[in-house]
Amino acid sequence: MYAVTGATGELGRLAVAALAKKTSPDQIVAIVRSADKAADVLPEGVEIRIADYDQPATLAPALDGVTHLLLISSNDLQSRQRQHRDVIEAAKSAGVAFIAYTSILKADTSPIGLAETHRDTEAAIRESGISHAMLRNSWYFENYLAGLPTTLEHGVMIGAAGDGRISAATRADYAEAAATVLANGETGVFELGGDTSFTMSELAAEISRQTGRDIPYKDMSESAYADALQQAGLPAPVASMLADGDAGIAKGALHDDSKTLSRLIGRPTTPYSTSIAEGLRTS
After folding, report:
1. Which residue ranges in the chain fall short of pLDDT 50?
2. Which one, 34, 100, 193, 254, has least CB within 10 Å?
3. Which Pfam families is this protein grouped with (predicted)?
4. Residue 106 maps to which CATH number?
């Protein structure tokens, strides 16, 4: 029996859908907080179980009979170290045999602040003695699509990534890789990124090409970028997190040329030009 935490999230629902193509839906448990939402977005036949990261007593019952677990990292940045450790402890108690965890690229050496909680979770999984796979994802390309309307409105893309290369990939590609590893029980550390990396200047150039407009990339210092994001309305902690991520990119933290992701999914990763075209159609 397979289980996916955060199964109604943007990555989780894609992982469940991909897993349903590799095994029978009745062998999949979707661990969610809302049954109503799950029924709307998950494949028919998937078993829905209610559990909450912040209610540890709900976790072990939700994992009853589960052998393979995909632990998708929580989006609660303040609490997720505790939340993840509670899930891992519940998995151990329930007799889960294999855990795949969605971590961050180069988690053990990454200078990006977000990597700290991932390092902690990876350590907890190793300490548990459960067989495991670390799915170290680079950036989701959707992060850039979310900012596309603002870029088009102002005619400029801003950041603090310098000339750092980014091996972003789509959530669908990462989800398919996670489903593959989970279904196969393939252990190890997987550094995952898109086949074709890009710099922010190259990304801006591709947006310019597809829109027929001149949209340059303006590089800033980390602090200036954080200030600009706050002025745009983002809370200070979020602005600092994004600026810190860009500073990490400038140091190579999100670049990977191993093509491990395309190997796992059995095809080339989605080109970033294709993702931009789709983003322009829907923005």
Report:
1. none
2. 34
3. NAD_binding_10
4. 3.40.50.720
